[in-house]
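ugh finaly. both done.
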Amino acid sequence: MRYDLSRVVFDLLNWASREVGFLRVPDEFVQISSIMPQKRNPVVLEHCRAKLARAHGSGETVYTMSRNVPFGDINDVGEQLIEPALTCFTELDEAVTLLSAVLEGATFNLEVMHHKASEHFTTATGLADALVANLHLPFRQAHHVTSRLVDMAYAEGIAPLDVKAELLERAALEVTGALLGVDDAFVQSALDPRAFVDARTIPGGPAKTAMMPFLARARETMLEDNTWHRAENSRLRRAADALEGEIDTVLAA
């Protein structure tokens, strides 16, 4: 969990930058610069990252203290282990609390995300796959054709979503010596980011139809964990109250 959350926070900090612009952190979680009035420093995410680092360090301390000791009543894994263990759990709990608060109020710029996904031919593999699936080209050949198309598009200043069948035909003619006989719709559909994602429907794929079952199971697991957590907290509180009652009885005797 420490590793996964630290990677999430790293990405969120990158997304929150002006250069990327995917994420807007709520005003209550940003800090202005002392000299640059235009800045919105996402300091809460930075605090999350620091807390996760402390949790990681404390967890590694527990592991290191435990790894080379025999089984038995050993001081190494006694009282000296408590402080780093508590630090690990406390910092992790606080990091999760902060991150949850940020994400609840955060807004994601889907338009910018789509625009970025449309740049620099991130979906070129989709075009190569389409050449294999629809025109039965060997993938190696489809790969070379697509690579040549990308080179030509960059050289001619053509954006991915502006690529037409004519450019693909020129690339294919250079590589294979033959035309493909495709139209603009074929090329644009293969390079469209949404179509690229929607086509990946296998378990673990990014398509909505593939992701929704995973999200549903995750929500169900979260509800079960929350129910268990509340029940255990209640049980521990009752046990603590009972213990205090027994102590009072003994002291009053």
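ok and the 2nd:
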Amino acid sequence: MNAGGRTEIGQKTILIVDDTPANVGLLVDYLEDHGLRVIVAQDGAEGIRRAQFARPDLILLDVMMPGLDGFETCRRLKSDLETRDIPILFMTAVAEPGEKIVGFGVGGVDYVTKPFQVEEVLARVNTHLSLRAMQLELERRNALLEKEIEGRQKVEAALRLTQFSVDNATSAVFWLNPDGSIAYVNEAACQLTLHPRAMLMTLHAYDLEVGTSAESWPGQWQYIKAHRSYTSETRLRIRDNIIVPVEGTVKYHDYGGREYAFISVRDIGERKQAEQALKNSFAELQESNRQLEEAHHQLLQAEKLASIGQLAAGVAHEINNPIAFVNSNLGTLQSYFGKLAQLLALYERAEPLLATQPALQQEIESMRQAADLDYMRADLKNLVEESLAGVQRVRSIVQYLKDFARASESERQTVDLNACLDGALNLVGAQVRLKADIRQEYGTPPPVTAVPMQLSQVFMNLLINASQAIGTFGAIVIRTGQEQEWAWVEIEDNGCGISVDDLPRIFEPFFTTKPVGVGVGLGLSLSYGIVTQHGGRFEVRSEVARGARFRVLLPARTN
């Protein structure tokens, strides 16, 4: 039996805690014969000390011991950061179910029943050592993966910054392949040539540059490679064969084993006048086409903009509350610091004179009492903490609103419907609560695959509609749950309800039963489109003067 000494590399250490060493002698010998290092402690306190010092890989802990019993010893080991991850197997002569439940509750991972079958003990020890080793390896790999992800995120951020810089450059940028084909262009290049990006990506440099042809391009490429970097003037042939004089800076690059020419071009002629003349010639036709192509998109966006406008009152209410006490706290802080400054000034004056100036001592003490210095010291910390919490609340509200306003229309991800509803309430809750009490009866719906901000827009529309259907003050109930392969969200109000005649038309664009000036009838139409695009459906029940219940069903995410 080892009581100390050096452990071989890779050898595992087992700590046995038992108040009767004779009971475990055979087990100790058996474990050591199978390559394990064994340390023995005779009571719980000694076991805790040895565990903190030796950091064993596993602990065999007797349940029935004088002083600290096994359960209390386990609790203390699990409350210590240095020993809480060590697997603990309880040893007991009485294996009652209640006792086992207590053992597992305090952190044990297994039980060994006395009298021992040493082969069984070794098997259980090896099993839990293997589990622990796998856990440590998983943690190590997770740490490496997190580090790798962090590195990749930094690289991706740098690439995004580079991409942003190029895309937002004022000069037109072209990346050319050795055969003259265009590998990349920025938005400024599209504006210069009057070609859409997709069109430009099908062209070659000699399609744009006057005086260059497919036959002469190989020589032009060799010139670029030989000179590496130069600036020259040339002319570009843009849409409708308009010729534009330009100045271009050309740089040769070898990136990742591939050759490119980077060309930055700026208009040095009458490009703006020619562009304006072209725009005037086709203005009426372009405007008509633009209006036809974008009319549907604008109508859908109008409802989203209206939703954002409706959020203003609620967001202002949510922000004003924390801002109010932040402002109050800062005013109090300003007053405190003024008093502290006066008191400190007196201290500085008194420092060399205190021994001989009892009047000044009395003045300082009076000022200290008037300033209530002890209270200010205690209150300063609370004021700062409240102010920081208030600012954080404002920040979270503004960030959520920004995310809603600029969210991508195509980025689908796994969505927790309960959290999505909480986000919608975070924006419109204050507005809705002016008309109704909100009761949240959340179940456990499965996650769905969706665009989060689109679902938030659906839920905000339903909540606002519910509040607008209530006359003076009522109630709105929000429920969630699962129905077979569907996750569902239900919003019910006790407002005016929807008539039987109107129910079939509620999802039609521009259909509304609200008074003039309250909505344009696009909210439910837009919501219906979003839910349908996500493979879902609406179920609506309503009774006039009793209220309405809207249920949104969405397909549960499949693994």
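summary for the 2nd one i guess: The chain is about 50% helix and 20% strand.
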